[in-house]
Amino acid sequence: MRHDLDGIAVAARRVLVTGGAGFIGSHLCERLLGEGASVICMDNFLTGSPGNVEHLLGRPGFRLVECDLTGYVHVPGPVDLVLHFASAASPADYLRHPIATLKVGSIGTLHALGLAKEKGARFVLASTSEVYGDPLEHPQRETYWGNVNPVGPRSVYDEAKRFAESLTTAYRNSHGVDTAIVRIFNTYGPRMRPHDGRAIPTFVRQAIYGEPLTVTGDGTQTRSICYVDDTVRGVLALAASDFAGPVNIGNPAELSMLTLAETIRRLTGSDSSVKFVDRPVDDPEVRRPDTALAAARLGWTPQVDVTSGLRRTIAWFEQQLLATRPAS
Ligand code: NAD
Q: Could you tell me the pTM of the whole model?
């Protein structure tokens, strides 16, 4: 089964996107519909919202289904592709919902894999660079096994995703399910929640409101940020291939958190100050994907540079925040 994406000859006609009403999931749904696929968007709205896919509701071939993936899951009719994106992803979210995060990564993944097996569908697991933990190898290649504290606060997310990778591999080897694993690095763009606690929405919101930009630690820790359109293109290229992965999808352009804050301040034209606050426990020191495998196997490289991606994101946040800000 192949889809039509970026000239890649493909054709999965009916796609299930779990977590489809979330940030990345909603962009996936939109893109797939645009390519002519039918899309079932399944979500329990824990951290996503129907508002993220409201604009798709009237479109032919789009269905929004409210369903908790850790409970009973049934999809009538054929499914060609399962994109398993359900899971809280921001540290603030998964620390607020630790058990739900472990459950969706384990039981939810079991159910999504079971569905792919039943339907004979290709299955793509949204894994994360967090499986590398606080990495001792830099940049991170897919061959690196990671440095994760199994009892630290972040383990509810990291270990759930590591389990999900293991389960996905077992379904491939034991049940012959056509699986793939994508390790997504920090992705940003429109439809992130202004209060989701991740650095970019936080800095952008603070800059727009003229509040101090809260940089954790001394701001020298690094991240590599990828614009959502690039991430979506990478995920769909993997879905359209027969590659099992795991494969990194992320933008290798690495920058310190302080540089990120200063860049956002400059691009918003804000005169906010920078305020240094405590660093979260087990916060990784560095993060940068090695994307050689994605380039070789999927022909994928990121196209959107940091300045253009941030400009688009800021424009969207300005529209959202300035429209809804209560008069002071
Ligand atoms: P998000 O929180 O915006 O989206 C997650 C969606 O999953 C939400 O709509 C939420 O309501 C839904 N969900 C959670 N538990 C569910 C359940 N039990 N049943 C049904 N739906 C459920 O997060 P996001 O940033 O869009 O991330 C999406 C996926 O991509 C996650 O699996 C995440 O681990 C992965 N990922 C994201 C990033 C990133 O930078 N955004 C990086 C690495 C991996």
A: 0.95
